[in-house]
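Hey all, sorry for the wall of text incoming. These are the two entities for the joint prediction.
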Amino acid sequence: MARRVAIVGVGLTKCSSHRRDVTYPELVHEAVSAALTDANLKHKDIDAVVYGAMDPFDGVFAPERWNVDACVGAGALNKPFIKLTTGGTTGGSVALGGYYHVTSGLFDVVLVVASQRVGETLEAQLVLNTCIDPIYERWMGGGAIMVGANQAASHFHFYGTTEEDLAMVAVKNYANALNNPYAHLQRHLTMEDCLKMRMISWPLRLSDCCPSSDGACAIILACEKRARKITKTPAWVRGAGQITDNYYVGDRPWFQDWEALSILAHRVYSEAKIDNPLEELDVAELYNAFTIQEIIESEALGFCEPGKGTELLRKGVTSMDGKLPICPSGGTLCTNPIGATGLFRIAEAALQVMGKADKRQVTRKHCENGRTRR
Amino acid sequence: MTQEEEILIMPGAWNLPFRHTAGRFASRFFRELRDNKKIFGVRCPECRRVLMPPRPLCERCFAAIDEWVEVGQQGTLEAFTICYVPFLGLPPPPIATVMVKLDGADGCLSHILSGVDLSDPDKAKDVVKIGMRVEVVWRDERKGEISDIEYFRPVG
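and here's what came out:
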C-alpha cells in the first residue's frame, strides 16, 4: 500500500556560470546542508540517499563517488545510496526515485540530491550530441537547441506563434529571476533587447535559450508520520510520474505539440484528482529550457487548448500576478545546471507550497498548508 | 575568502573513441545507399507503417519486422531549424537540419538541407518552409553511412 509522502526540506545553491569558489563536493554539500537546516534535521536522521548527475558534463565518471561524503558525511558510505542518471531529466528522476523509496515503505526519511557543473565543460552541445543515436542521427550535429528550435519553428507554422511571443516568455522569466537570489541570470530584459539578440538556431535567439550553470539542489522526503513531526509546512506529493518518448527524433515530427507530456499530465492529474488544472493549481514550475517549451508545455499540461499557450501568455495568466504563474523562479530559462534542473523545479514548487518562496512567493489559494484548505 | 584569493583551475578532457555496430538493419540500409543509391524503409506487419530509418522492431506494435520497402528520393519537409552559431566539434554554421518524410515513408529522416542561401535568417525563413518539397542529392564517393546522402535540396 502506497504511503503519503511530503517534501519537508529544501536546499538550493546559488547558481552561476562558474562556482569557482567551491569544489564539486563543496557545492553538493552546500545544497545538502541547506536542506538539512531547512528541515531541522541532522545527517544521522537520513535513512537513504538518492543522487543524480549527468556524468559527461562534469568530466567525472560516477561523480557520486566524489560526492558521497558531501551528501550526509562519511556515514553516507554506510547508508543506502543510489545514483540515477537520465540526461536532462535526471533531476526529475531522482525526485521520483526518492518518492518511491518512501511511498513503498522501505525508508522513512530520504535525501534527494542532484548536481551539475555545466560551467566546467567547454561545449555543452557536444556533450548533448552524444545523447543522439550514433548510427543514423548524430552526424549532423544535433543537440538540445535543435530540438527546441524545431519545436519553435513548428509552433510558428501551425499555430502562428511569433518571435514577439517568445520574447514575452523571456522577459517574464528574467523579471521573475530578479526575485530569486539563487537564479543564475540576474538582469532586466526588455522585448526590444530580446528581438535584437543574436540568432542561435532559427527562430531561437540567445534570450530564448537557457544558460549553462553550475549548481546543486537537495530535497528531503518523509513519510506522513515523520513529516508531521519534522515540519508544520510539509509539501505533500499528490501525484508523480515519468514517461518516455520515441527514440528516433524523426518518429515525432509534430514538434508543435508534446504528446508524451500530455499523456503523463493526464495520468498525474488523475492521481491527484485534478479536473481543471488552470482553476485548481496555484503555480507551475516548468522545465522551460527554451522559451517555446513554456508555451508548448502549458498546452500539453492542459492549462489551455493546443495552440492557445500564447493567449495565456499575452493575457498575463502566467505572470506573477496572473491566475496561474509559471516559473516564479525564472525557470530553466535563467538557471540550468542540467542534471539538477528538474530537481530545482520540484524544489521551487515545494517552496511555494510551504510558503517559503520569499520575494517570489505566489498567493496560495488551494494550498493544503495555506489559509484555504481543500 | 577574500576577493584577491587566487583560485587555480585543473584541466581535464575526455577523448574516448568508440566503434558502434550498425547491426543488420542499418548495415543493409547503408549498403543500399552506398552501392545502389536506393533508400529503403521497413514495413511493420501489424500497423503497416513504413518506418524510417529501418529498425528490426516496431516500437508501437512491439512486432518483429522483415519486409523491406524502397521509398522515394523526394519528400516533404516536416520540421526544421537553421543553426547560426558554431559549436565545438559540430558542423560549421549556417546549417539547416531538417526532418524529411520521403514519399512512401511514415517517419522522417533527420538530415540537412542545402542548395539555398541560409546566410540571412530573415530571408532564409521565407525560403525554407514546413511542407516544402525536397529531394536527395547523392555524394559521389559513398562510404556506407548516412552522409552518403550529401544533403536535401528544394525540388525544382
